[in-house]
Amino acid sequence: MVEPNSQKQQMQHVIHRILDANLDRTREGLRIIEEWCRFGLNNPHFAGECKRLRQEIAQWHTAEIRAARDTAGDTGTDLTHPQEEQRANVSSLLQANFCRVQEALRVLEEYGKLYHPNMGKAFKLMRYQVYTLESNLMGYQRHQLLWRSRLYLVTAPVENLYHMVEAVLKGGLTLVQYREKNADDQVRLEQAQKLRQLCQNYGALFIVNDRVDLALAVDADGVHLGQNDMPIAVARQILGPQRVIGRSTTNAEEMQAAIAEGADYIGVGPVYETPTKVGKAAAGLEYVSYAAKNCSIPWFAIGGIDTSNINAVIDAGAPRVAVVRSLMQSEQPTLVTQYYLSQLNRVRPDN
């Protein structure tokens, strides 16, 4: 028969082992995130927040808890999952480590209540601080990639949709908008999910045209709204601050209104007449030149742009362009993408 005191000591030892493992797990995950903030983003604010959290966690990692460590006897050291063996890109690496940190913090919050009267409260607060850090950092990542993106593919319904999009991604494109006006919602959902995964694999942003609900359903990076779609403020309330919201504009007034409403980027066009926008008159290169001088957020010239006129659009002041048919109907989408990027990379965008 086990003595009561001995039973209590055994229970304390188990709790100490649980706390030790999760304190290590939390600090390791935060350090992985911190290294990207420091060296990848050169962002002292995010790096500093990770360091502060690590140091606060370290204060709870007492000698008493460390003494319970038994690595050789830990049955979990050999457990793994295929998804842990590889990461598609930095975003998926960060996401995995945020999940790791948050799970460990929840364990510390619950088992900490059995160790110290203040430990549960302390780790509950830290868990919410990590949620905020994740939201801010992932939003920052998205917006940084938006600023760096020069070429924007807007999809059109084609039989080989996934093949075409992947071919363009292989060419170096980092921004894709899923646009499908006529399919039923089940088809849209399936296509958007597959395209979202494809973009994630290549480290590209995935935007959904018009449908805020669909963007949420597939965890898209954002949504693109037309002039007749819901107000940006309402979309922002639904999507949160970390996702990207774009707005189509055809003139100076619409541009200024979109900026005032809080759009993250705008489309400027149609530069030339295009069957994608039936019955809509071309805004022309004059609007492109106006945007070059007056737009304070990232903007993409769009509408009828192809390899024959891309340089005229660039010469009018466009640092970024969005295209549909010239890539979706191309026989060599990877090469055409590379050509567009080679021309656009000659120009340094002011916004």
How would you characterize this protein structure?
The protein is α/β, with parallel strands linked by helices. The chain folds into two domains: 4-143; 149-344, Alpha-Beta Barrel (TIM Barrel), CATH 3.20.20.70. The chain is built from 14 helices and eight strands. An eight-stranded parallel β-barrel has the order 1-2-3-4-5-6-7-8, surrounded by six helices. Helix 11 links the parallel strand 6 and strand 7. Helix 6 packs parallel to helix 7 (185-202). The protein is elongated and about 85 Å long. The mean pLDDT is 93. Residues 130-351 are annotated as: Thiamine-phosphate synthase. Its EC number is 2.5.1.3.
Radius of gyration (CA) equals: 25 Å
Q: Per the principal axes of the C-alpha atoms, what is the gross shape?
A: elongated
Considering the protein shown, what is the CATH homologous superfamily of the largest domain? Aldolase class I
Low-confidence stretches: none
> How much is the average pLDDT?
93
Cofactor: Mg(2+)
Domain ThiD2: 17-135
Function: Condenses 4-methyl-5-(beta-hydroxyethyl)thiazole monophosphate (THZ-P) and 2-methyl-4-amino-5-hydroxymethyl pyrimidine pyrophosphate (HMP-PP) to form thiamine monophosphate (TMP).
GO molecular function, one term: magnesium ion binding
